Amino acid sequence: MSSYEADPAGSSRHLRLTDGFEYYLSASLADYERVLKNGMVALDTNAILNLYRYTDKARKDLFGVLRSLGDRLWIPHQVAVEFWRNRESAASDLDFFGDTVVEELQEFHNQIERSLRTWANRVALGQDHLHRILEDLGPAFDGVSVKVQEFAGERSEGRSRNTYEDPVLLELQEILENKVGAPMEPDEYERAIAEGLRRVDERIPPGYKDKKKGDADSAGDYLVWAQTIKEARLRGCEVLIITGDVKEDWWRRESGEVRGPRLELSKEFHSSAGSRLYMLRPPRFLELAREALDVSVANETINDASRVELNAYAIRERMDTASGILASLRSDLLAYIQNEPRLPLVDDSIDSLGNFPVMVAMFYKEVLVYLNFAHPAARMLRRWKSKVSGRKNLRLEEITFAVAPLSEDQLNDRLLLEGMIDGDRPAWNYNGFGNHDPGRSRVHAPLRDDHFDMLHPIDLSFEVPRLTEVETVGQLVDVLREDLPYRVYVVHRSIANFTGQPIDKSSLDGTVESALRALAASLSAQWQITAMPGLITIEPVISDVRGAQQVWRGSL
């Protein structure tokens, strides 16, 4: 007799309509209230990672709901494994798009400034007039960039890569204290991996939709499943799984609508754990928890959870479509690019590429150190060349690159390209080399020890041939901004008062350091020049800057 409640006497030959078909029954509000108050609530990996994608208000509300669950909250050990594996990627989602906008703004700024300088030379416009024009241009672009970064910062509060200053992580650690399942014993783990892979091959839920991830990763969903069943059996209670996963190997769908867990999963769960399984996606979970647990959850929180879920669904759909070819594409790409001629990172090589889209591999001392796509190719390579020029512990002559051409269709599929790069990221893909220069509000931010700018700080002994031509503060600032391969931040409006101030050229020896020293000597006492590991700032603010290579202060 297949039923949740077997006939103890075994005497009846008649069944109820629902006997053996309990798994088709829709969960009622009373069912959800019961499991929320008395059962175990297990979080899937995506439900936790999406905390980094919520607004501050939504995140606060969800934390409140999780706290209200007390000891009924639990996560499988495999979820913890996947959380730590993917935490930084989830925390940097908004950074990618914000960085792109700021980078494009800076490119437009530089282009306009170059055009203005060319025009000024043709019409013999005086330097003081040119500076008055530029002093309005710089703050305008910087202001927009700061606004973009501030918005990204507001939306990304708690998304720090540093674990000791990540509020999301710190809150999760407190909430999940003693609520994480123990790892499987080695023999049990190996058996579970084997069973997970068997299920993938035979399309038995859950997890068979992850077949393209690779051997161990393909069994990840089954590990979550097996660990959840084991904990439910120990607790002897019903279980509610909160997941943003919408794949068919977890959910039963009728006419395109989600009706609950797949029948096979419900049956297996009852058979193995002796209790009923429920599943909810985060928006509905928040909605039901608000009533059942009497906790504060704003309507905008539920809307935001839906927004995040829809965005994640769209991304997963595209990645699922592309994932089948990512591994072979990555292998083919690396093989192709490794066999392509290595070109020196010089202007002639760069100019030969034109504006075609390409995948670029950079090599330092014959070792692959950076892999990324570039469009237009020449512009991006010039930026990367500038990034490695004038640096300590790095010789431009020892850097080469190779390219693989991309079609426009490939270039437009950013997710595909990101996926191709993600599997074999070389050292410089992780250490900040490809990042744009920070906005004005972050120019003095400390860097981690393995950051590109810390490993290869700007070289203040870098020689600038045009220093022999400068006579005034304005001319010196222009030369530094135009000729140095690294960024020089200047407060245009304030320094305009000094543009005609003569420079004492006696101390100039052609190096950046001598130029900055001479510039400081021509500025008033409230000015400070700071050489950070990756850039230089010139501003009318005196401060102690942690991590600065060198500081000069005005002496007039």
In short:
The chain is α/β, with parallel strands linked by helices and 556 residues long.
Account of the protein in words:
The chain has 556 residues and is of the alpha/beta class. 49% of the residues lie in helices and 12% in strands. The chain is built from 21 helices and 14 strands. Strand 8 and strand 9 form a beta hairpin. The N terminus is likely disordered.
Helix count? 21
Low-confidence stretches: 1-9, 154-159, 318-327
Strand portion: 5-15%
Which strand order does the major sheet show?
A: 2-1-3-6
Total strands: the figure is 14
Radius of gyration: 30 Å
Shape: elongated
Write down the overall mean pLDDT. Answer: 81
Helix percent reads 40-55%
Q: What is the SS-derived class?
A: alpha/beta
Q: How can the largest sheet be summarized?
A: 4 strands, parallel
Give the end-to-end Cα distance, rounded to a whole number of Å: 96 Å
